[in-house]
Amino acid sequence: MARTWIASEPDAMWETMLSLYRLRRREQTVVFSEWKKTALARIPAGTRLLTTLAPARGYAADFLTPRAESGSVAAGIEALRRTTGERLRMDMTELAWRHPGKRLPQWAGQLAVGRPEALGAVVTAVDAYFHACLSPHWSHIHAQVDQERTRRARLLSKGGWQAVLSALHPSARWSFPTLELSYPAEHDIHLRGRGLVLQPSFFCRQTPITLRDPGLPPILVYPIEHDLAWAHGPAPDRYPTLRSLLGTTRAHVLETLGQGDCTTTELARRLNIPRSTASRQLTTLREAGLVNSHPLGQAVLHTITDLGVALLNGRRSGLIA
After folding, report:
1. How far apart are CA 250 and CA 278, in angstroms?
2. pTM of the entire structure?
């Protein structure tokens, strides 16, 4: 358990692969509908390489989601570029075995034998797809994963890992030392002291997912709760008078906290402002009784107060006309 942790940010490689599922599956959900319309209009031609390696259902090649130093697209692409020939051979053999009715194209055979140009084409396809279809939404994806991580961190501080793992997913059943979850196929992973990365994911849906090869570093990717407002495009300015009262930056800070608790670093990232600016604005709001702050490990968690909520809702007579 000491080697188990919650990932600090979304993983660009996992979001890339899982978003490809969302594009191709007919799902009755409003969460991704607007994104799908814009993504399909921008999707690069080279994406067909990725859909071959990650079919709409069933096994997707493990090497597409490598462990990297961070979840950034740059780190992920660099890790993808370093994929070994042995890894490629194993994954392409598994892909052919798992999808016997699907004939793989010629370039897939070149990839299986480790041809550098074949791997380079995949790397280029991932980079082009991410920047065309995910990059415009990455700040929102990052903010949503931040909120999920904050919720899990609060659970961890209050109830330990039992609370976190038991509430990880509706299907989760935690009985030390075993975690059971619904999964499309029977699949056991024995950690053997390696620990586990819990990776919240924006594009993961319904059931958690993991790597097929149990010898790879253990990771469990699980779906987050979504703010449905993003599905309907930019919202109108709901608080013009609040901005006049508090100033634009402080109003943005209060609005953001009204959507969910967050740390100073997370707040700065969501609003794209320096951390020092976020800290200064939080201090002002805290002194006005609009925000509470509490230690959370080595960070500080900020929560909107009842007065702050009332101010957002315009229920304090004399404060907002």
Report:
1. 9
2. 0.76
